[in-house]
Amino acid sequence: MKLAKESNLVTGKCELIPGSGVNITPFPLQPFPSNEEKIVFNYIGRVLKDKGIDDYIEAAKIIKKKYEYTEFNIIGFIEPTEMSYKKVLQELQEESIINYHGSQRDVKPFIKRSHCTIHPSTYGEGMSNVLLESASSGRPIITTDVSGCKETVEDGITGYVYKAGEMEDLVSKIELFIKLNNEERKKMGALGRSRVKNSFSRDIVVNAYVKEIDNLLKGSSSG
Length: 223
Prior knowledge:
The chain has 223 residues and is α/β, with parallel strands linked by helices. The chain has a single domain, classed as Rossmann fold (3-Layer(aba) Sandwich). The protein has eight helices and six strands, in the order αβαβαβαβαββααα. The chain has helices spanning 2-6, 53-66, 84-94, 108-112, 129-136, 167-178, 182-199, 202-222; strands at 39-44, 70-75, 99-100, 116-119, 141-144, 159-162. Strands 3-2-1-4-5-6 form a six-stranded parallel beta sheet, sandwiched between helices. Helix 2 (53-66) packs across helix 6.
């Protein structure tokens, strides 16, 4: 909004809304996994270099060597231009480093059994639905400092933010999460849910539009 105003792209009254918002109804707060014998991480999104898939894979390799009780999942289709990943993911699955689940119509069951969603995107996104839906479900999130991702996290409170493209930083944030006890992880997820509900719910966006439409109609009527 600041850039738009300074560039004279908009004039007059302005209001910033949180993207298109997220529908929190189909993504309710889920019971947090009580099983600490295996800590489950998800990557949910297209298998694409710009989405940071390479960093996720490399981080998984390092973490699995140090913490055998971790699980790294990838849920999403491989872009036609990125089919070389098909063989890579197959080999990683055979080595028990990555579980590749392909494209899924419903990601909620995967979110439910997980402890954390990692979104390592390295390019500017819109407001990330993956992160908002995961946080709405009560799952802590680890993501990059790029626009559309960093806004969804209160660093150290509802998850962790790391510098995009710096795989070592991602590894350090995953280790921070692993070293938390399960109650701390659960609290982090609950705070994330509250943050989404209070700041990113689609109701906020819809209500903002309805309010402006009402104001326009009233102005038209009085004119």
